[in-house]
Amino acid sequence: MGEFSFTRKDRLLDASAYSRVFDGASAKASHKYFLLLAISNDLDHHRLGLIVAKKNVRLAAQRNRIKRITRETFRQCGDSGHGIDVIVMARRGADQLDNQTLTTILRQQWQKLRSK
Predict the structure, then answer these.
(1) What is the pTM of this model?
(2) What pLDDT digit, counting tens, does each position of 43-64 carry?
(3) Angle, to 10 degrees, between the axis of helix 60-77 and the axis of helix 99-115?
């Protein structure tokens, strides 16, 4: 699996990690369908947290598809030497987008975060 895996070290694992990002987000990238919040961490790699609420995306298959595409774009953005913790929140209507559009939007949002 190697470079394409999404291991425990790549994820935000507990409520305290999520709270740290929510409370101290130093960078934000907002879009009609997504909100990305980020804060630097003391690690040498990025970590990702996903929030795809049933309230906003009703079908489990659609929630899983959004999470899968988000993880893939996260892996493709690469490490830049210093680590950040990122939370991606899906908003209402994200399930109506096709895979290519989702990928394009998420890549744009990663670029916004990278520039901040």
Answers:
(1) 0.90
(2) 888 999 999 999 999 999 999 9
(3) 40
CATH assignment of 2-115?
A: 3.30.230.10
With tokens 């609420």, the residue in question is 53
Residue spans of the domains in the chain: they are 2-115
Positive or negative, the CA dihedral 103, 107, 109, 110 is: positive
pLDDT band of residue 3 (cuts 50, 70, 90) is low
Phi/psi for 89 (5° steps) reads: -115, 125
Q: CA 116 to CA 77: how far, in whole Å?
A: 15
Q: How many residues does the chain have?
A: 116
Tell me which residue has tokens 């906003």.
56
